[in-house]
Amino acid sequence: MTVAGLVRQSGSLALALYLPAALPNAVQAQVVVPDDVRDCPGCRVRLTEGRVLGATAESALFDGSGLYSWRAPDGTLWIHSETARDQIQVLAPGGRSVREFRAFGEGPGEFSSVESMACSKDGGTLWIFDGGAGRFARVTDAGEVTTLPPVGIPVEEFVVLSDSLILATGRLRTPEDLGLDAVLIDPRSGQRIAAIGQAAKVYNALIDRHRGRVPARLPDGRVALGHTREYVIDIVDPGSLAREQWVRDAPWFPPLRDPRASPTPVLAYVGALLEGFLVTAILVPEDDYADLLAGHQTRMEDSVRMWDSIVEIIDVSTRSVVHRERRDDLVVGAICPTGELIAQGYTESGFPVLTPITVTVTLERR
Asked: Which of 58, 85, 277, 347 is a Cys-bridge partner for 273, taking CB atoms 3.0 to 4.6 Å apart?
């Protein structure tokens, strides 16, 4: 994964949706989450690394930006990246590649390119957005594909709330789309139900192309939308469209002043733990980033030397950071529906490897 790939993965998800003239869904409240790590009485946070996957020529298929993964009911791990847009790599529980899932085409039961992936609320079904055909598709672990009507919206990221409701974000195309955060879609009909955004908010177009939203479904039905190029999280109620915005006061993640500035941190992942905690993963440049970059053509494996990851655990009830740790690998996403983080690294031979990381927060019952 190149540095450009990292920015592509997490920093250009600005939206391409028409914003109606009046939407009564402006941010309801704004909360500042301090940068200090507070004690969490009775909490024990642990990050446990699983078996390393990859390190073979086959693993090159899940190298690069836009990494998505699904732990199917049969235990197999389905992985997709932009390196191979028309296929999904399927790994056995032990990590061995068992097959490549393809369904190339734009007819019924086919897809032309995988833009992004998510899973159903119960984790039993994989959902993909076919960027070529502009439609969603459901996939079972047996490889059965059900295609749905076109939605007319260039979706890049989405979260499945139910079989009849998806919250999606996408690319920015026109100035009229500025200020829109996300859209609710009925995938059965392809119709847009509602828009989530601020009609009065106007962004600089250049900045907006470097902004984005990383959606995550919370246990209480709300959705967390992480701004990729700012450490800001919007908590959205899909029913009322009410929003609460969390602004992280982190000096190591300054507000984005100039989208052309490089390097800048990237909020790569936002997820939810059943215990009522958010987990975030931020890619941050190494102190010697400029020295590493200067004087030579970078390779994919150089990105691990140039970037680190910071993983934070945030208590939703107190809106405070209860755990933070810095890692020397690249935490670029998580496995749906288990919530295991996925860290990317490389062998000395240059083969990409993935490491699942289980995050647990144990609460002592008094």
From this structure: 277
**In the predicted structure, residue 9 carries a pLDDT above the cut 60:** no
Give the mean pLDDT of 55-62.
Answer: 56
d(CA 35, CA 31) in angstroms, rounded, equals: 13
Three-state SS sequence of the chain: CCHHHHHHHHHCCCCCCCCCCCCCCCEEEEEEECCCECCCCCEEEEEEECCCEECCHHHHHHCCCCCEEEECCCCCEEEECHHHCCEEEEECCCCCEEEEEECECCCCCCECCEEEEEECCCCCCEEEEECCCCEEEEECCCCCEEEEEECCCCEEEEEEEECCEEEEEECCCCHHHCCEEEEEEECCCCEEEEEEECCCCCCCHHHHCCCCEEEEECCCCCEEEEECCCCEEEEECCCCCCEEEEEECCCCCCCCCCCCCCCCCEEEEEEEECCCEEEEEEEEECCCHHHHHCCCCCCCCHHHHHEEEEEEEEECCCCEEEEEEEECCEEEEEEECCCCEEEEEECCCCCEEEEEEEEEEEECCC
Lowest mean pLDDT among 115-119, 122-126, 302-306: 302-306
Closest CA to 196 of 263, 140, 242: 242
| pTM of the predicted protein model | 0.81
Reported as a pLDDT band with limits 50, 70 and 90, residue 294 is low
Give the mean pLDDT of 98-117: 77
Question: Averaged over 328-336, what is the pLDDT?
Answer: 88
Phi, psi at residue 158, to the nearest 5°? -160, 165
Residue 354, amino acid: L
For the chain, the distance separating the N- and C-terminal CA atoms, rounded to the nearest angstrom, is 46
State yes or no: pLDDT of 15 exceeds 90.
Answer: no
The tokens describing 143, both together, are 């490889």
Residue 237 CA from chain centroid, whole number: 19
